[in-house]
Amino acid sequence: MSPDVRCAVPDDATAIRDIARESWHAAYDPIIGEETVTETIDRWYTLEDLEASIVEARAREDAVFLIAEEADEPVGFAHTGPHRERPAVASLNRIYVRPDWWGEGIGTALLKRVQDTLHSEYDRLYLAVLADNEVGVSFYESAGFERTGTQDSDLKPEVTEYVYEKPL
């Protein structure tokens, strides 16, 4: 069964924050620590900011904020918009799935919808992922992304991110 993937609405903000909290703790606690994860979620995933991001994405043709559901239960989300410095490139800002649903095709369905929605607006899709996030790295590489570089993470000193891109 494939998930129902739809455009997020502001009422989805609480579910999105909950998905982020679960997936961030599962993926990133061993890498950057539980305290840093909690602080980052509290800072980056306020309901007001999420609602504003959803409204903005809905108003633009070059951005998308999606939510995936299984049996009406929110299980994942993705948020993509223009890259700050490269007009022909979309930036995959967020894509997260509840850990209990990892490996069930939710991330793949979200990524496919992102690509289908934005392929006429952009030439490439860009993202950065923590280098030690083995689940994330494996997912992106299996989805056809190519590693194009590395960069320092803003999350914690001495943490490296891999940069990936994929043609749309």
UniProtKB/TrEMBL annotation:
UniProt KW keywords: Acyltransferase, Transferase
Q: Where is the N-acetyltransferase domain?
A: 3-168
Q: Does this UniProt record's set of keywords contain Secreted? A: no
InterPro entries annotated for this entry?
Acyl_CoA_acyltransferase, Bact_Acetyltransf, GNAT_dom
Q: Which residues form a coiled coil?
A: none
Q: Name one GO molecular function term.
A: acyltransferase activity, transferring groups other than amino-acyl groups
What Pfam family is a match, any one? Acetyltransf_1
Q: Which range is the signal sequence, renumbered to this chain?
A: none
In Swiss-Prot or TrEMBL terms, this protein is called GNAT family N-acetyltransferase
Q: What's the source species for this entry?
A: Natrinema halophilum
